[in-house]
């Protein structure tokens, strides 16, 4: 049984997925399985992934019969996972520190009360050039004090305990959490154990027009407000967080109609990450 199950959902991910898979293969820690779940891809994702499956028995490829959406696809991967720890990687991102998995496993082994650990990351463009760096709060108290103001975890960097995830129902499949399903899960995991981010920069997050975040910024911001409200009794500083997130939501609403919206989106997002 592997210690770590890596869940990688994909939908028409052929342009980037080989880089994501290669970054897993380059990890110094090798006690893992990689579950790649295709959500009805129509490009040549399947052929690319199968070329890895035949060479690497730790990689499995699962195909949804039809497009089910990111939430159900993530949960399908978790349901099939055999590891005690779940790591996440998107098909358009890459792990850039070869020791990411071993350091996160070591942290969770040493801190049995911790439910979730992430890391820092860099944002890169499609050519791989760094756009900006994200620095997340590190300790449980720092994270809790800010978790209702921002999502303190970068999805492609996290590792969490499968039993803790199972106990809270894994990712919500509600339409009210769509594109904020990760934030919703972190808030629920934080009620099962402590939270942490390692100081390392482990992951390169690729910014491109077809990413789910880029295409759904307004809906994501609106749903984060709803998730925040649902968990307001479990974390401090709700009203500060609400004001910050509401301003972000309204800002995204306005600038989506402007001809120069893309640089403004990135500007607001960078300010939000620095809060």
What's the topology here?
Blueprint: E1 4-10, H1 17-25, E2 32-38, H2 45-53, E3 59-63, H3 70-80, E4 85-88, E5 94-95, H4 100-110, E6 114-124, E7 130-134, H5 140-146, E8 159-161, H6 162-167, H7 181-189, E9 194-206, H8 212-215, H9 217-230, H10 238-255, H11 261-274
Parallel strand pairs: 1-2, 1-4, 2-3, 6-9
Antiparallel strand pairs: 4-8, 5-9, 6-7, 6-8
Task: Write the CATH fold name.
Answer: Spore Coat Polysaccharide Biosynthesis Protein SpsA, Chain A
Major sheet summary line: 9 strands, mixed
Q: What value does the Rg take, in angstroms?
A: 18 Å
What coarse outline follows from CA principal-axis ratios?
globular
Fraction of helical residues: 40-55%
How far apart are the first and last residues' alpha carbons, in Å?
Answer: 40 Å
Low-confidence stretches: none
CATH class: Alpha Beta
Q: Could you walk me through the main structural features you see in this protein, from its secondary elements to its overall organization?
A:
The structure is a single chain. The protein has a single domain (4-208), classed as Spore Coat Polysaccharide Biosynthesis Protein SpsA, Chain A. 41% of the residues lie in helices and 21% in strands. Strands 1, 2, 3, 4, 5, 6, 7, 8 and 9 form a nine-stranded mixed β-sheet that branches. The mean pLDDT is 92. The chain has eleven helices and nine strands. Helix 9 packs antiparallel against helix 10 and helix 10 (238-255) runs antiparallel to helix 11 (261-274). It is globular, with a radius of gyration of 18 Å. The chain has 275 residues and is α/β, with parallel strands linked by helices.
């Amino acid at each position: 049984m592997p210690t770590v199950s890596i869940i990688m959902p994909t939908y028409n991910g052929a342009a980037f997925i080989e880089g994501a898979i290669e970054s897993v293969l380059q990890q110094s820690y090798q006690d893992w399985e990689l579950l790649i779940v295709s959500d009805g891809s129509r490009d040549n994702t399947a052929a690319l992934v199968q070329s890895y499956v035949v060479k690497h028995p730790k990689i499995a490829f699962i195909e949804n019969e039809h497009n089910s959406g990111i939430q159900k696809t993530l949960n399908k991967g978790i349901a099939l996972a055999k590891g005690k720890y779940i790591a996440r990687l998107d098909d358009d991102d890459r792990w850039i520190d070869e020791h990411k998995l071993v350091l996160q496993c070591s942290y969770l082994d040493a801190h049995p009360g911790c439910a979730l650990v992430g890391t820092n990351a860099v944002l890169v463009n499609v050519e791989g050039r760094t756009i900006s760096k994200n620095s997340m709060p590190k300790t449980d108290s720092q994270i809790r004090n800010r978790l209702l103001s921002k999502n303190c975890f970068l999805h492609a960097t996290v590792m969490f305990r499968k039993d803790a995830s199972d106990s809270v129902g894994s990712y919500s499949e509600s339409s009210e959490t769509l594109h904020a399903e990760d934030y919703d899960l972190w808030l629920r995991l934080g009620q099962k154990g402590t939270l942490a981010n390692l100081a390392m920069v482990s992951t390169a997050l690729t910014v491109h027009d077809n990413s789910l975040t880029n295409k759904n910024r307004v809906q994501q911001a609106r749903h984060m407000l709803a998730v925040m409200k649902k968990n307001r009794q479990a974390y401090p500083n709700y009203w500060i967080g609400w004001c910050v997130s509401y301003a972000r939501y309204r800002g995204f609403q306005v600038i989506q109609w402007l001809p120069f919206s893309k640089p403004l989106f990135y500007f607001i997002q960078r300010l939000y990450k620095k809060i």
